[in-house]
Amino acid sequence: MSAPHRLADIHRLPAVQLRAALRSGEVSAREVTAHFLARIEESNPRLGAFITVTGPRAMAEAAAADALFARRHPDQPLPPLHGIPVAFKDLTDVAGVVTTHGSAALDRRPAPADGALAATLRGAGAISLGKTQVPEFGLTAYSENRIAPPSRNPHALSRSSGGSSGGSAAAVAAGLVPFAPGTDGGGSIRIPAAACGLLGLKPGRGVVPAGESSGDPAGLVVAGPLARSAGDAALLLDVLASNGANYLDAVGRAPAPLRIGVSLDSPWAGIFPFTPDPEALDALDAGVRLLTAAGHDVAEAEIRYDNRYPDAFTTAWTAGVGAARIAPHREALLTPLTRTFRRRAQQRSAAKLNECLAFLRQFARDTLAQYSAWDLILTPALAQTPRPVGWFTGSGHGDGRWPASEWAGDADGDYRRQCEFAPWSSMVNVCGLPAVSIPVHWTGGSPGAGLPMGIQLIGRPGSEALLLQVAAQLGF
Fold it and tell me: What pTM was estimated for this model as a whole?
């Protein structure tokens, strides 16, 4: 393969292969970084995946990586992600770069230091290309805000890429970065992964050190990988995790036959009754067929959830935005949903929050007891196909107009639509369990045709490697 042709195909390489090419000297960090920056320059104006691109800084970091490669002793190991480009969602601090949190109500000041997630990946040799689009304060299942164009789905630009890690998912799916870290407090990795046809893994509580989750009294938020394959996700998780596990080695081993319980039960159904789209059920059927063909025992599981869950989860989920430091004269710049839930959080007593947190702990114990009858729980990843841009907010910029002249003020309608869109996500965070979203179905009948639809597999504590093994077994 000639060098120009090879360089033109860099973005098609799995991250595992790209790492090998960088470590062998087949390509340089500068070549790789320049290639991805060129793709961002070409595609981001229509995709809206990035809020901030840090090109000159990325090229300087790539030059330093190449210098390290050139001067190192042959026996000196390279950092595990030497020269691999990544992007950080714009809730993560990167030193010297503005963190917008997707909000027009905050001052634009460069972060004084790397947050925990950026420090970990940059310390592992990854090169940051910039900051990706997020909803305001990461609150929603779509990545639209008042400061930058919405993040769009690479498979259909009129559709959302999901949220809150929607810009990162769009960037990975469009080949603007090989993989990316996301954070997930109620589905924020798995939802955009499902919408964009990626594998998205939410690790269990405590597997990845927390450092970005201030204002998270229930311990919902955890960082994890958005990737195009189980191997790539394992490579990134090896760097993110603090437990010394070798996920990349584990993903190559086939799992033993498993007992998998299939469920459409949701803790949101009591307050927001919903009917899954036929495409969601098609994805579930595809998952059942694939898992059965792989030798697993798949059977229906009936899970009962306490109907007090929606109020308790919403209280815990929105507690942080109530405490956010926002100047009173800038409150009007918040989106209607943020403003509404911020006001409610501020009006709630500490006793009410503590009561909800105690309930969620009991909910987790009850749910774990029911799940324990199975090795894995299988659900659809989403109840609906990826939604049009502007659909949740009523802002109507799915046709390409931005900014919208007005955002609809129906915060409760917006929230209800999100819960009906992704009704099987948040309880996994409450329970502290690992879960993976796997794209097993396309509405057009084949990969790349139509819209992606996925399944979610929920594992027992410590089953991240098993979830990746099953995803690899299914061909991802």
Answer: 0.96
Q: Per the residue annotation, which of 28, 103, 164, 437 is the catalytic one?
A: 164
Q: DSSP string covering 432-448, please? A: T--EEEEEEEETTSSTT
Residues 6 or more apart whose Cβ sits within 8 Å of residue 431:
363, 364, 367, 368, 371
Predicted local distance difference test score (pLDDT) of residue 449:
86
DSSP string, 23-51: HHTSS-HHHHHHHHHHHHHHHHHHH--EE
Single out the catalytic residue among 43, 89, 128, 437: 89
Query: Is there a catalytic annotation at residue 89?
Result: yes
| Number of helices (H), then strands (E), in the chain | 17, 13
The DSSP bridge pattern shows strands 199-202 and 222-227 to be antiparallel
User: What phi and psi, each to the nearest 5 degrees, are found at residue 284?
Assistant: -60, -45
On the question of pLDDT at 1 being above 60, the answer is: no
d(CA 42, CA 421): 31
Catalytic residue among 168, 188, 213, 425: 188
The stretches of 138-178 forming alpha helices (DSSP H) are 166-173
